[in-house]
Every structure is written in structure tokens, then in C-alpha cells.
Amino acid sequence: MGFAWPAGHLTTGDVDNYDDGVLRLRAGVWVAILAATLSAGRVAWAQLEEGEEEEVVEDHTREKPVKQPEKHPEKQPEKQPEKHPEKQPEKHPEKQPEKQPEKQPQAKVPAPKPKHIAAPAGQQTIFVAVYAPTLAPDATAALIAGLTAGLDGAKYAPIDLDTLYAAPDEARRELAHADNQLDRAVSLEQDLDIPAAEAALADATSAYERHLLPLVDRDGKLEKLGDAYRLAAIAHFLDGDEDGAKAQLKHCFVLNPDLDYDKTKFPPQMASLVNEERLLFDELGTGTLEIGAQSRGAHVYVNGSEAGAAPLAIDALHAGPNYVTIVAAGHPTTTATVEIDGAKSAHWDAPLAVYDGGAIAALADAAPEVGKSPMGAKLRGAAAAVGDPDLLLLARANPGGGGVKVTAYLYDGRTGKIERKGEIKVPAGAPAQAGDLARTLTAPIVVGQGGAPSSPPLWKRKYFWPVAIGAAALVAVGVAFGAGSGMSTGERVAVFGF
To answer: What pLDDT sits at residue 406?
Structure first.
């Protein structure tokens, strides 16, 4: 800003006074400016101490805002470009191996008490056993059959386990008892004594199942067993147990696939249930049963009908509970119930059952004494367990060289001494040739008249010197030529069975 000097009105003194005034004015202005600045500075400082930068006058009528700490946004990571995974080739699930059946435990059947087997008139009883720890049961059974076939049937009466253990009279008695229980159950159901009827039917069913093959031999079919399950289904239905009735009907349809609702066989109130279960049975269809190798060589029966030798596969079996019976020489006959699912194969694999104690256990325990003369205590005990036969033909079989070497010992059951010892090499696939050995060992034996079998003097026996019979190298020697080697206890003993 400029100042205009008024001309003609100012003297030198005035100018001096003017200059002094201007200087005073300017000094006042600077003082005012400085004072204002200092005052403003004090106010600002006070406001900073009170946390108020904008308001100079404190307002007590409102709440003081709380100063929020300044938020610094976290540094976000740089966004990565989205990765698109490469397309993986489609994985097809690997074909799972077919589930193998669980192996069943070996069944043990209590052995009956030993009994003496009397020989028919003019004959000697003989027991045949083969110790073959490395042979399959079917191969051992074939050797036993070959040895037995070589015996002269006019002179010798073989003792087998059917003779020792199977009790035809007992089977007949139990089947007759089951028939009576079946008839009794009919009367009990008519009287609505359901608990007693169910007990009688359980007793009958158990007996029929224990003697399944004798039942087939007697009746030619399993109709009685089917009737027992039909009556059991009725009993469960009348007792309000519909699920139990359905379970019994499954047995009925498997045993008699032609069974349908019939008012003469079922009460009218069961018509709907029987028809529904019949439709389900037809819908499930048939399946396959595979019998494993643990029963190799055994004869297999399904629902009382022979199916073949194990291992094997049996087709077209009705879905539901089927009876599988295993029959093998030297082993108790056993029957198991196997459930068949029409949608897939069923597997059943169990080792052959064994007798718990009795002849088999005694023979196995006596294995180390076979070939020694006279008999030891264990071998004598085994002879007693198999019916105290007049003669025992005990053999060892060891495979090798494309065949089986069979060494046999013919014991006199009364004296306990070895009468003959022989060896033969049986070619593979020709077990019948073992009969040559049995024929040779037993031919010189003279049947006694109520006493011990006797034999000619050693020098008069034509089989004293080694001879060859056919293609089989057969050696028959007298007892003087020594005894055989021992065999560890617990090795397999196969006994003549059929």
C-alpha cells in the first residue's frame, strides 16, 4: 500500500514529526502483530494439550470425542494371478481283487469209545492205515483204497471208521425219535401249546441235520426236514414272531423249491406272508457255491445230493440256507449251513474235521513206533482203539521220482510182532498198484482156526527173496531184514474209510 504526500501543506518540521509518527505507527503495528501471534500460539498450545485442535472454546455440554488411534491399513499381499490346475487324467478305480473267503476253523468231533470188532466166520479182521504227511488227503485215500483192494475178500474183513465210529443203529434210533417229535409238534400246535411245539421241532430238526445223509438213504429225500421247518414257521407266526417265521420259510423253499401257499399246509392267516416270501425267493434266483481246497478229495453233498469232489464250484443253487455235507475217509462226516446269495458267489473253505481223541489220535500218537517189532505201548493202544483187529497193515508213503514210495508193515494184532515188511514204488496216477503190495504181504498168511494167524517158516516163503511184479518194483522181505524208521507224532494219519 502506498501513501500520497499532500503537496503545499507540509513543512520540514511537519515532515520530521510525520516521520516520527510513521515510525511509531509501524512499531505499534509490529508490536500488535507480535502480541497477536504470541497470544494465538499460547491458545494453540493449550488446545494441543487438551486434545482439541479445532475447537478453541471447550463445550461442556457434550461429551468429548475420544481420539481414535490412526489406523494404518495392513499391506495386502499382491494378488497373484489365479492358477488353473492342469486337467488331470480321469482316474478309473482299480479293479479290486475278489474278497477271499475266511478260512473256517477245523471242527473236532468227539470220538466214540473203542469197541471190539468181531470177524465173520473163517475171516481175519484187518485194519489199514497210511502215514503220509506230505500227500494230499485225496492221494492218501487213493493209496488206502489201493492197498485194501489187494486184500483177499474171502480171507480178510477190513475194519474202517464207518465200522468203528458210524453207528447205523444209533442213526436209525435218532431219526425215529425225530419223526415222533415231528408228529408231537403237530398236536401241540393244534392245542396252541406253542412253546412246547417249538421245543419239539428244534429237537427234530437237530436230529435230522445230524443224520442228513442217513435221512436221504432212508427216505430218498429231505421231506421230513422240510416239514419240520414248515411247522416251525407256523409256530413262530402263531407266537407273533413274523421275522422268525420268515427265517424258517427260507429253509422250506430251499428244501422244496416247489412249495407254495396251500391251505392244507399253512393256516389261512399266513397266506399273505407265505406268498410274499415266495415272491422274494423267486426274485433272488440262484447262485454259485465254491468249495475250497482245504477239503480236497472229499466228497461233497449239497442238500443231500452228491455234487462231486472238492475243490469244486456248484451252480444253480437256490438263494438261501443250503446244507453242505463233507465226507472223507478217516474223518467224521460234517454238515454246515451255507447262505447262498443269488447276486454273487458264496465261498466255503474249511479243513476236514477230525476226531478228538479215539482211533485217529491214538494212531497219530503211535506214529514213531510204526515199523518197530514188537509193538510199543502206544501202538498197542492204537490197535485197541481200532477194534483189536487180527492184523494191522500200517504203511508210510513218501513222494519222489514221479511216484510214491510205499513201505508197509503187517502186524499180528495178537502177538504184536511184524509178520511182513514190504516196499513198492507206485507210479503217479496209479494208486491201485499199491494193492500189489497188500496182496504180496498177506498172501502167505494162513488163517488160523480161532487162534493167531500163522505163517510158513521163513525159508519156505516164496516172497522171501526180492521179486518184481509188473512195472512196479516190489520188494517183500521177512522181519529179519529190520524195521523202518520213526515218524514224528502229529503227522497226518489217513485210515481206510470206504
So the answer is: 95
Do residue 313 and residue 199 come from a single domain? no
HEC secondary structure over 265-299: CCCHHHHHHHHHHHHHHHHHCEEEEEECHHHCCCE
**Is 54 domain-assigned?**
no
Note whether residue 174 is domain-resident: yes
Question: For 364-392, what is each residue's pLDDT tens digit?
Answer: 899 999 999 999 999 999 999 888 899 99
Integer CA distances (angstroms), 394 to 141, 360, 366, 415, 420, in order:
14, 13, 11, 16, 11
In 81-160, which ranges are continuous DSSP H helix? 137-149
The pLDDT mean for the chain works out to 76
In a domain, 55, yes or no: no
Domain shared by 222 and 295, yes or no: no
**3 state SS of 287:** strand
By residue range, what is the domain housing residue 415?
124-161+356-495
Reduce the DSSP state of residue 405 to 3 states and report it.
strand
Put simply, whether the predicted model's pTM sits higher than 0.85 gets the answer no
Burial class (CB in 10 A: 0-12, 13-18, 19+), 88: exposed
Which secondary structure element, helix H or strand E, spans residue 131, and what is its range?
strand 124-131
The residue length of the chain stands at: 498
Q: Is residue 453 part of a domain?
A: yes
For the cut 60, the answer to whether the pLDDT of residue 25 exceeds it is no
Distant-in-sequence, close-in-space partners of 232: CB < 8 Å, separation ≥ 6:
198, 201, 202, 205, 248
Q: Which of 210, 209, 205 has its CA nearest to residue 229?
A: 205
C-alpha cell at 209: 441235520
Calpha distance 141→492 (Å, rounded): 12
Count the domains in the chain.
Answer: 3
Residues 299, 427 within the same domain: no
We report the CATH number of the domain holding residue 140 as: 3.40.50
